[in-house]
Structure formats: C-alpha cells, structure tokens
Amino acid sequence: MPAVEVAHLEVSLADGSRLVDDVSFEVDSGRVLGVVGESGSGKSTLSMALLGHARPGARITGGSVRVGGVDVLSLTGRALREARGSVVAYVPQDPAAALNPVLSINRQLEEAITGDRAEKAARVRDVLTAVGLPSDRAFLSRAAAQLSGGQKQRVGLAMAIVGEPQLLVLDEPTTGLDVTTQAKVLALVARLCRERSMAAIYISHDLAVIADVADHVGVMYAGQLVEFGSCHDVVTAPGHPYTRALLASVPSTMERTRLESIPGRAPTPAPPHEGCRFADRCRMAAEVCRAATPALLPLPEPWAPGRDVRCARIADLDASPRTAAAAPVHLLARADDRTPVLRVDGLGAGYQDRQVLFDVSLDAYAGECLAIVGESGSGKTTLSQCIAGLQARWHGGLSMRGEELAPWAHDRTRQQRRDVQYVFQNPYASLNPRATVGSSIGVPLHFFFGLNGKRRQQRVAELLDRVELSADAATRYPSELSGGQRQRAAIARALACEPRLLICDEVTSALDVSVQAAVVELLRTLLEGDLSMLFVTHNLAVVRSLADRVVVLNQGVVVENGPTEAVLDAPTDDYTRRLLADALDVPTASVA
After folding, report:
1. β-strands 4-13, 296-298: how paired?
2. Based on the number of CB atoms within 10 Å of its own CB, is 310 exposed (0-12), middle (13-18) or buried (19 or more)?
3. What CA–CA distances, in Å, run from 340 to 109, 253, 362, 498?
4. Shortest CA distance to 221 belongs to which of 197, 199, 205, 202?
5. Higher pLDDT, 443 or 426
6. Which residues pair with 84 in a beta bridge?
7. Tell me, what DSSP letter sits at residue 380?
8. Could you give the C-alpha distances from 183 to 47, 312, 580, in angstroms and in order?
9. Could you report the per-residue pLDDT of 365-384, keeping only the tens digit for each?
10. Using an 8 Å Cβ cutoff, are 154 and 185 in contact?
11. 3-state class of 76 per DSSP?
C-alpha cells in the first residue's frame, strides 16, 4: 500500500470558495512528490491540510488523508497533536520561524522526544548526524541567531524527523538560499527519504528545484491539480497549457533567452463554477473550455503512461517534447573606452571587528547590468549597501561619474542621493503599509522635483505604466497587491528619482517563476536607456538571462570579473565552477 493516500481533499471558505478542490494522489515510502504552481494556487493550503490544519476563515470540508493507515483528518485534540510529529511532520519556508529564538538547539530537539535523558541524547545525536550537523556540546548550546541560514534549515529538518514520521511535508524550504546551500538541502531531503523510508511532499514554485528532488510532480492551479505524472515526463514533455507556460518562464544557466511570463493573474478564491479555471489565461482556450469543468483524465497515446491532465482539449494537446527555448537575447555592442557610471576601487568593509570585503574593485557602465553573485555571507549585500550609503564602515575609493561618494547617504549631495537607488529583496516590507502606492511613489517626486497636485499624479501614472501596472494601482495599499505587483511598485518608486544606478538586491528570489520572468523582462527594458544596474543575486539562471557582466564574490574577495558568457561558459576559478555545478536547470528532452 502507498505510504500516503489523499482522496478528494477539499478546503473551503465560509462562502463556499474552494482553496483546495477535489485533490487526490498517492505517495510511496522513500519517494518525493513535488507540488508546483503560482502563489495562490493552493499549494501551502494543501500542505497544511495534510496535517489536519486550515488557516483562519477556512476549514477542511471533505476528503481524507491517510498516512501509514492513519486517517489524519479523523483525529482531534491530543491524538491530532501527537500525530503531528510522529505520523506527519512539517518544515516551513522560513527556518528562523520554526525555531524558538530563546531556547538552545538541544532543548528544542529534546522537546519532540519521549524517553529518559540518555535516550533523548542518543536521538539528538542521531538526527543531527543524519542532517550533517555537529552534535557536540558547543553546537547544541547555540541559539537560532548563532546559526547560518543553511544550518537553520538543517536544524528544522532535524526537528521534523526526530519524531520518525512517515510523511514529511516541506513548504518552500530552500527559497532564499544560495545555490550551494540549496543543493545540499535538496540532496539531504532525498537521502533522508530513502534511508528512513519516509514519504515527502515538497511544495515549491521553482520548477528547477522540483525537477531535481521529486520523483513525481503535481501541478496546481486555482486549488485543482491540472497535471500529474512522473517528474521527468512532466518537465520534458508537459501536457497542460499551464505547465507549458510555467516552464516557458524558467531561465536557463546554459543560454541567454527572453523569458515569457503568463499573461493575466491567477484567479482569487471563488465558489465553484463551470469551465476551466485557466481558460482566461490560456492560448488554447475555446468555447468548450468554458462550457464545463474538465476532469483529471489519463493522457492517451502517444503520451507516456501514468500521466493525468485536466484539460477539455486533451485530444488536441501536443505530445512533442519540450526543447531549449528558442528566443535568444544578444548583448549590445559596447565601446571599450567608456567612462564608468560607478567606480569601486580597493573597497574594504566590515562590521565591528569582522572584515567582510577585501580590496573589491569593479566598474559599472551606462546601459549595462552588472551581476554580483556568490554564496550567502560572500559580501554581496554589504557591497551594495556600501554603494548605496547604507553601510559606512568601509575604506577605499567609491565614485559616481568621477565624484567621490561619502560613506553615509545623508552626507551625500541631493544629486548623488538621486543617482543611486536601491530596490530591496522583500517586496512585502519595502513599501509603507499605511500609505497608498501612489503616495509612496509621490514622496521622491515631491522631495527631488517639487511636484505636487495633478503634476505629481500624472507622473505617478506614467511611472506605474512604465512598470506595467494599471493607473488604479496608485489608490491601492500594498496589502492589496500581489508580491510581483509590490516589487514593480518598489521599482517605480526608485525610478521616480531618475537614477543613474539602480541596485536590485535579490529582487526576484521570492517570486513565482512567471512573476520573476515579468520582472526580469521589465528590468531588461530599463537598460535600453542610460541606466546602469547592479543586480545582486544567487540565481545564476537569471544572471545568464539579464546580466552583461558578472562579478563573483567569495568570502569578500572578487574571484571572477568579466562578461557573462565568459564567466559562465569558461570560469577560471574553482569557486565559480562549484557554483555552476550546484546551479539547477529544468531538464529538456534530447531530440535527435
């Protein structure tokens, strides 16, 4: 029997809207099921329902979740609490949120174990060894704040498996991690499932991650499974138009291509209605697609067996394999004798008694995107904050158009503050939640240009149009926007200053692949003028798609600096080679 059997699972709101609608699947012991889809598709709601939990305002209204013969949804009270850990365990997206900042690592692990002191100590050592962490007294006494991001995620995994569950539910556990740490966590998840005979359900918006870790994949849209099958078959020969659109949004580390975002937005929860929920965004949509809700049915020959797709036009789907994207983007020819917009010369920086950057030198030119890449802790963000005037503990040379820049932004001239603008990683924290989008964009327009009234409103509308947001977004609050829309609004606010240098710090790391594609293509259009862009990231596929040149940082030292193609195709430093080896790509079918 399968280790996990989910049948006709439903999670609904009070008005009848379904967040998860008639979802069924099975997972064997030692296997990983990947669940992929855009934000709002129901992935996280599904993951919580597997633990018998629904968010406030929602409830599980139908179906069953059987893990090792135990019907989780039939449990209540103490029995359900005990099952969460011993039958099914959960690893959240943010490892810091899973750990108590006050308690030691040892105390938190022991709380999930029954037995005497010796038994608990042995179990703690066992799980820490399993996740590749030390189990000495010094490490066990640490608090969460003393761990790196990768260590926190490993401790989160240790806390999940210490109860020896039969099902491990992982909700975006590698989002925000650098490629090397991500590769280690993914390999760890696969190994733990094999060695401990656990089934796992891995939730992600990153198809490259799913292709690396999962045996089977379920593609979700608007609460429904729209495609299900072996991971290799789905990613190399996708059936449903939504799966194809997702894959077209994914950048490649091998080829510089133009990315295709999915038009429109995912639907908000609504009571069940007739018709395909993807029809409004689908290029294949016809009247039959809106006439009735399609069922999840097996694909006929010549498709590989074991494939299910929810599409009214199932007979018209193309069974040809997916090959590499065919829309290359060529670099613009640049003169070698250009004057740099930004010059960094021998920059060193640190915090208190710890130096982070060592003798960093680079130039950024007008109309180019310079990518800064490296692992977490390599100094990427410290460098970008020094340039922006947000970190003053540095020495060396830093100039814009030949003018020296003061360490702190408030000590720079008004023109210099205009010239350098920063777009932060987290779109949810970079806008004032109490101000409308139009008000936030209008602040620099008033401060730098003295615009007020109708002139400011007109300029706000122009900036929103430039980042492909509708004019009515000006009257909305950040909480009313999606993550991608918030990031666009943050970019519009930066562009309001008419900067010469735009610093983008991991601006796509938390976005869906489709939204990421839209933001990358937006940034590409900004480079058509004289704007210079510093793109801080750990995503080498996005670097390949967008950047003209690359600087690779390793422990605060520049180890590679050159054109994107030269660095990624023929790296000279072992560290760069390791980063490329750990970078993930969605596989394509090889066609003779």
Report:
1. unpaired
2. buried
3. 53, 27, 10, 18
4. 205
5. 443
6. 88
7. H
8. 22, 38, 11
9. 999 999 999 988 899 999 99
10. yes
11. coil
Q: Alpha-carbon distance 243 to 37, whole Å? A: 9
Token representation of residue 236: 């190399």
Other CB atoms within 10 A of residue 143 CB:
15
Q: 453-466 and 437-449 are packed helices; what angle lies between their axes, rounded to 10 degrees?
A: 120
Through-space distance between the first and last CA atoms of the chain, rounded to whole angstroms:
39
Measured in degrees and rounded to the nearest 5, phi and psi for residue 202 equal: -110, 110
In tens, the pLDDT along 10-50 reads 999 999 899 999 999 999 999 999 999 988 889 989 999 99
Q: What share of the chain is helix, strand, coil (3-state, %, to 5)?
A: 35, 25, 40
Q: Which residue, 341, 316, 379, 275, is CA-closest to 502? A: 341
Are the C-beta atoms of 297 and 332 separated by less than 8 Å? no
Cβ-based neighbour number of residue 102 at 10 Å: 10
Structure tokens at 394: 């540095």
Residues in the chain: 592
How far apart (Å, rounded) are the C-alpha atoms in residues 45 and 17? 13
Sequence-ordered list of residues with C-beta below 8 angstroms from that of 375, at least 6 positions apart, any chain: 178, 179, 180, 181, 538, 554, 579
What letter does residue 412 receive in the DSSP assignment? S
Could you tell me how far CA 492 lies from the centroid of its own chain? 21
Report the DSSP pairing between strands 199-204 and 32-36: parallel
Contact between 284 and 575 under an 8 Å Cβ cutoff? The reply is: no
Answer yes or no: are the C-beta atoms of 525 and 259 closer than 8 Å. Answer: no
Per DSSP, the chain holds a count of helices (H) and strands (E) of: 21, 22
Q: Is the pLDDT of residue 184 over 90?
A: no
Give the tens place of pLDDT for each residue, 221-272.
Answer: 999 999 999 999 999 999 999 999 999 899 999 888 888 889 887 777 878 7
CA-to-CA distance for 10 and 356, rounded, in angstroms? 50
User: What is the arithmetic mean of pLDDT over 201-216?
Assistant: 92
Please name the residues in contact with 203: beta carbons below 8 A apart, sequence gap of 6 or more: 35, 43, 44, 46, 47, 169, 170, 171, 172
Grouping H, G, I as helix, E, B as strand and the rest as coil, residue 176 is coil
One DSSP character per residue, 508-575 reads TTTS-HHHHHHHHHHHHHHTTTT-EEEEEES-HHHHHHH-SEEEEEETTEEEEEEEHHHHHHS--SHH
Phi, psi values for residue 505, rounded to 5°: -100, 95
Q: Cα angle at 219 between 216 and 225, to 5 degrees?
A: 105
Instruction: Specify the DSSP element, H or E, that contains 123.
Output: helix 117-130
